[in-house]
């Protein structure tokens, strides 16, 4: 706890105190707390979290405190607020914590989940949700579909409280700016929590039915397996991003003058893909292609990449091998798929005068035609050691001038539309490399064109 910032420690303490106050009525005689149900739910939640402490299961189950929310929402539906607060405590305290400081994170997660479940249970009770579940032992039939209304409202409150508390810890512990701390937290969580609430509601109805708690496992087990599949997908996706990040960092270290160029080409490629109406999967692959288009520079001697003077014809031939080097580097990375063709062919030209194979027209893969436009655009709008970046309208005009001979006109038009709609911050595109857009003259170091500095281009009518 000592390594935790004071503001974060105070914040965690306040949340823990609030959760404790919410739980205080549970042991009082007048509370009529259903200790049997509370104990069973707490034990189930603990059982869901304990595999994370075992190294054999750590990478194959949805581990981490709070990862199995359907069970917590079922507790909010089945228990009074003071009792619901206690359900998550054993599992949160026993769950795996991967990052330091372990003690502070464990206390925080325990307090956060306890307060969130308590707020959700209070909302459900306030809206009369328990009456819609049916009587214990099957004495009454569940009031469907009206039971969905309080359950949905409970899920919204669950998401809201969780997002508010998460934003607070980001601001105090991670020192994220207050204006950014809560951005997107609620929007990302509402959908999944509504699904969790539906599973929790089904579990609560079965729990209250004549079949009893054992029947609730019919919901718990499939939902837990679904969480496992979802967690595996996210782990795989995170591994993909880590692979790409490592490759880009290696290029940036070797050719530091173009730092940030790859990320911007990926962003511009994604803008073009969105205008073309590509599916999400292809759009992501295209963004990967843009980010990795220069990965072949890892095979080019550093002395050539960092040379201050103009390149000799032999050195230029070596530079022109980088698309083939890049293709060989990523050949075994299966998830890149179409991106590999873009890495190999992004310096081809529509008239057939490009490299490495002199492809022309539609024989150039679509991804490569997109990345070629994005690459040239960022190269023109980025400030280099020998010149200042062109304004966005001037760069677009140059792309349009070269459309049909060097670039695919469809891709140029798509980028122009995307820039009109979304804009582009060219002022941030500051690099100092000898790299230049294909087909444009290569200035000597120290020579500065007379163009004005790149400025932030805002959506609006583009000048021709």
Automatic annotation (TrEMBL):
SMART domains reported in the protein's UniProt record: HDc (SM00471)
Transmembrane annotation, as ranges: 68-89, 110-127, 147-173, 185-207, 213-231
Domain HD: 258-380
Keywords from the named record: Membrane, Signal, Transmembrane, Transmembrane helix
InterPro entries found in the cross-reference section: Cyclic_di-GMP/3'3'-cGAMP_PDE, HD/PDEase_dom, HD_domain, HD_GYP_dom, HDIG_dom
Pfam families: HD_5 (PF13487)
Chain positions covered by the region annotation Disordered: 427-464
CDD domains the record matches: HDc
Keyword Lipoprotein annotated: no
Domain of life: Bacteria
Domain HD-GYP: 236-431
Keyword Transmembrane helix set for record: yes
Signal peptide: 1-25
Cited PANTHER family: CYCLIC DI-GMP PHOSPHODIESTERASE TM_0186-RELATED (PTHR45228), LIPOPROTEIN (PTHR45228:SF4)
Name of the protein: Nucleotidyltransferase with HDIG domain
Organism: Streptomyces clavifer
